[in-house]
Amino acid sequence: MFGKNIIYPSEILAKRGLRRTPSPDLMSMLTSEGILAKVNTKEVYSEVTIDLDDLIGTGDSDQKIRDELEKSKYKSSRRRLAALTITNILDSDPNATVIYFGPSVEDSKQVASLLLMFGKSACHISAETSRGRREQVIREFKEGKVRVICNCELLTTGFDAPRISHVVIGRPTTSPVLYSQMVGRGIRGKKFGGTDVCEITLIKDNFKRSGIATEEIWEMVGELFLLWKENSNTQAA
To answer: How far apart, in whole angstroms, are the C-alpha atoms of residue 135 and residue 48?
Structure first.
């Protein structure tokens, strides 16, 4: 039923004469009916500063931003921030299951390694991981044997684990489609085998661009995050 339209099931919307463009009324309706989980959002801030003036409009901006993250002297502290954020989630909720999206395969791998050092059950998978190993990790994640699964972009689509309680996004993007795919991994409602509440944590960097404030730059990902913020409890760490 969900397929590629996991966030806004088309047949459900059609029955109500609703369009697929997200709106506060749409989010509220789907949440109240248990189709979507209620979303609580949280923001944690890294020490990374990226100047966008030299990046925007010069090809693949997303890739250039990720390249800058990999070159930042604060990349290690950013990964530690991600791992500590996930550790706090696991410590505060014994039933939590977390999916982490990193800005690179190496980042995902390092965050998983840090979590293991902290004594947490976590695995990293990527396109380089053998098919058999990927299937094993995903199966153990669904069974609750692995509580955290770390990846870069591998699990944005074609991945079905309805009972994800937390999504931690460390992968900056200006694409509303990619952002919605990442968030969509966790917001299936209880009516369809998901959860009542999904916690979305966004790791935010300091993006600088002439004449534009950092918060405005983050809002360039489109209306989705703003709508979730309007329909959820948002906290800043």
So the answer is: 34
